[in-house]
Give the backbone structure.
Amino acid sequence: MQALIETRAAHRVHGGQLTYAQHQSAATGTAMRFSAFIPPGEGPFPYLIWLSGLTCTEDNFTTKAGAYGAAAKHGVAIIAPDTSPRGEGVADDPAYDLGQGAGFYINATQTPWTPHFQMERYITVDLIHTVEHAFPLKARASIFGHSMGGHGALTLAMKYPERFVSVSAFAPIASPTRCPWGEKAFTAYLGEDRTSWRAHDAALLMQAGRANALGEILVDQGLGDQFLEGQLKPELLEAAAKASGAKLNLRRHEGYDHSYFFMASFIEEHIAFHAARLSA
Amino acid sequence: MQALIETRAAHRVHGGQLTYAQHQSAATGTAMRFSAFIPPGEGPFPYLIWLSGLTCTEDNFTTKAGAYGAAAKHGVAIIAPDTSPRGEGVADDPAYDLGQGAGFYINATQTPWTPHFQMERYITVDLIHTVEHAFPLKARASIFGHSMGGHGALTLAMKYPERFVSVSAFAPIASPTRCPWGEKAFTAYLGEDRTSWRAHDAALLMQAGRANALGEILVDQGLGDQFLEGQLKPELLEAAAKASGAKLNLRRHEGYDHSYFFMASFIEEHIAFHAARLSA
């Protein structure tokens, strides 16, 4: 099974094993990188998929979130994929918020993005298939993420409820159809027709009742976040939950910004949140 | 008092306040950078100085060690300085293990290093003076570090027992007079006369009884560390402790390497170790 992945580096951490790996993805047509933390013990383990934000690779969460102590304690594995396909022959844009490092966890329908930018299929098919075969994992996963990755976690959990037991997010882009980051990316990847955008908007999906079967959804947002009002707009998620009856637990935190220092401060609570549901 | 430092960035983390700062050092004659984590609450707080290893800046520990949850819990501040003076006009060497990023926490006596590479005086005078005035800190500190910074922590604690309550280290260079990293750096900074080196060698200081007043010294070493046999040589520290009666608690950990993943795995235990002694 190990032939599915190529190990790039390995470290022991908190008694478990951290692997930096890459594998060939049919969805993106490229080699994709991810990190995998497997807790100590026998397994098989339930696992979490972490989706990172704009500009990140598989390394940011892995080195900065401080998540593996809690993951080891709760016996939960964590898979952290890269945020887009990369490399020569893969389309890109000079801006930080489009192209490589900015895959938005959707399947592009527009050139030049179509052949490689298929991140929704990558996460929900190729990545899950690969890690469940390459590591001692149960077919039982939850999903969480930050910013662009918070949008990814919320939308994928609502679109694929059979795949994800629970979902949480830090400072998610609540409604990409109504903020500059999302409008720019969706125009590029999905085209000018905004009706095609609605299927990838967490607040709109939640408003349509797609989160109601998911149970509690935990969202943490820092009130010192520079992107709070212009891009993230958690109030749209809150209004959608109120309209639909979704069980959103939106926590606002005085003074915290958009950085990994914010996430590190609450990551243990998110891991405990998911661990309780994964073991239920 | 705040005029002593220039704030470069600030983040809330684990309920406390993290500041990236720089200040003018008389010892190095340059602007020096450090990070300062101040736990939540009123203060004044006891504090830890963290000394980093080769190639590091003030940022590595700050983003990767996962230390601030435990520091907040124990009410201990953490100061993490850069590893050398830097900038135009400061001597450097193309190698990673000499010059900028490799100050070795000693005072150079040889050109071209003399004017700026005065890291022993920087840490024990300028840094301490600055942080105790700029932040709500008690004049009560302990010291710890990694690799080159483990050497720094051990030697400075033994040379300045009046300044540091306790000391611990991760994978320290145990005896720089007897390993390639140390021999290269001490030759450059201190000259060819090896008798001048002995005052800056942890194992030799310990052998001479300089650690006996310090109480327990906690040292963690990974057995998967690529530098274990060629550079770090903890057995020299162990022999020195045995000869002198110093209370060395050297813990060897199967499988752990030289990375921050190792340190993150045991950092909480180090903070608890120091917190107990700082509050005693």
